[in-house]
Automatic annotation (TrEMBL):
Residues 88-262, 267-330 form the RecA family profile domain. This is DNA repair and recombination protein RadA. Belongs to the RecA family. PROSITE patterns: RECA_2, RECA_3. Keywords: ATP-binding, DNA-binding, Nucleotide-binding.
Amino acid sequence: MREGSLPSEVISIQQIQALGVNAADIKKLTDTGIHTIGQLLQMPVRKLLLVKGLSEAKVEKIREAAKKLGGEKGSFRSAIDVLRADESRIRITTGSKELDAVLGGGIETGSLTEVFGEFRTGKTQLCHTLSVTSQLDAEQGGGMGRVIVIDTEGSYRPERVAKIAEARFGLDPTSVLDNIRVARIYNVDDQIDSNFAIAAMLAEEEEPTRLIIVDSVMNLFRTDYCGRGELAERQQRLNQYLGGLKKIAEEFAVAVVLVNQVTANPDSTFAGADAKKPIGGHVLAHASTVRVYLRKGKGEQRIAKIYDSPTMPEADAVFALAEGGVVDAE
């Protein structure tokens, strides 16, 4: 894979037309958000049968064509092949060497990283910084790619990103902002549907996207679903949304950062329990590959704790918020 390109295994859904699949049937798939062979093979057959105009015979023909191009999803690989794939993932610097170290090198592509904490702990400032660093060259710890922002709170500030880009990294702020696509989302339905728009962009554009920011992931789910009577439906739809994001992250080698809120922990009276816990329940906990807890320190200092990670131990990192975004604490 050349630097800055999409993963070589990403194959456009349009290629199954050469194997005898009708163009009209391919359009039905793209209209439902399926743009690559990988997405098609990840889709359960029962959901494909819900697509209007696709019979059981057509679905079988489409899947057979996809398997010829993309192989069997879920087929076995040796552990060494899995390891090599993991080692090839890009890690995007947070702007702080100490924070990068506890994360194993930075924010990892192909994964969902959840960042949670109270207000003014640096969550959105981290996103502003990552919006710039993800565009840097690999030698600078960057991802050499574009950024997509799903803004559910109205907290994303392009002027802040521009200042970080120019003052700290000496980049042209106009060029940096031109590489960032922002969607202001106001309800859960549009938030879930944004996955389809993201997949379409990533499949069609030649320039790679390396980072997707969702700030915040739970805000609209808390607003649109109230009370215990709607909790089951909320969690079901949240699971659907996060599952879609995880597939996008893996398919397109994109890092996904989920900003999350916290609530009081009723178990905090017990020894060793935190006073705050992330919202979203077990659904969000299991979907996130890495979970990072931010809290306030002295002055502009902030403390990041690795709350959960499959590869890194629990550890703290101290960083600071400055004009240049997230930086190492002095």
